[in-house]
Amino acid sequence: MTDTAAVVAQLRVLEQLTRTENRIARLRTVQARTDETRRELTDNARRAEGRLARTLHGTRGVRGALTVGELPVGGHDDLSVPDAARAVRELDAPEDGQAVLRYEERRKNRAGVLTAARTRHAEVARETVAH
Fold first, then answer.
1. Cα distance between residue 113 and residue 72, in whole Å
2. Same-domain status, 52 and 77
3. Crossing angle, helix 94-106 and helix 111-130, to 10 degrees?
4. How much is the mean pLDDT over the chain?
5. Alpha-carbon distance 83 to 59, whole Å?
6. DSSP letters spanning 37-86
7. Which entry of 4, 47, 121, 131 is 20 to 30 Å from 94 by CA?
8. Range of the domain at 94
9. CA–CA dist 5, 76 (Å, integer)
10. What are the phi and psi torsion angles at 93 (to 5°)?
């Protein structure tokens, strides 16, 4: 199993668990006996929905399925290779570099952008681990 496949599999498990958490919170909200408990369970369900949205977005990013509008580099498709590479070098989160890398691999496949995305992803990952 490739690293990407393993990450996608883990994200799918997380997605299923979060969906279950949301369903349980919603069911328990209906069964709640006090307003305070109802509010707490509603908040739990809302937080689970937010985590689910982030998980789905992460899964799509790892798989290269984000649309150009979802990329962390605005107007990515319209940028020249030097401009896109420069923008990629300014990314701060490893998942942002990964998202651009997967998008570029599946769509434009521009060598200069791919190299910049791979390099920046590795740099940011090292910085993240070091802290």
1. 14
2. no
3. 160
4. 87
5. 27
6. HHHHHHHHHHHHHHHHHHHHHHHHHHHT---GGGSSSTTGGGS-HHHHHH
7. 47
8. 68-130
9. 25
10. -110, 135
Q: What is the pTM of this model?
A: 0.63
83 plus 109 within the same structural domain: yes
Domains identified in the chain, total number? 2
**Shared domain check, 58 and 18:** yes
| Span 74-109, pLDDT tens digits | 899 899 999 999 999 999 887 888 888 889 988 889
Region of 109 (left: φ > 0; alpha: ψ -120 to 50; beta: rest) is left
Tokens 């509603």 appear where?
A: 42
The verdict on 57 and 80 lying in the same domain is: no
18 and 72 in a single domain? The answer is no
